[in-house]
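[[Sequence with tokens]]
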Amino acid sequence: MSADVLVLNRNFYAIHIANWQRALSLVYLDHARVVDQEYRTYNFDDWRELSQILHNHPGGGSFSVADIRLAYRYRLREIRAIGEEYVYSLKPPTGGWTQASLERILEAQVRLEGEVTWEI
């Protein structure tokens, strides 16, 4: 794997390009942060936790409660779960992630778990 990473200063000005190994070590040593497309920053532990949402669902199910809570916590634009037959996608409701929307989604997920048969 070879990839270059643009290194920014605190004002988001580009200062140099590093290979991915160097960039990851800077984040791990707490000398740098990861920046997403919406300019949110993450330290190593946050980034590691966020990356754990990328996993397969070999049992064929859709999202777990932990998946949904992580999407809410990090205000993700979309999460996907890969089952045996389907790829599930969850995007934030109109108006974005709110506590009320999280509760409604979790209630529906628990109520419908294993019963969802429709596709969009």
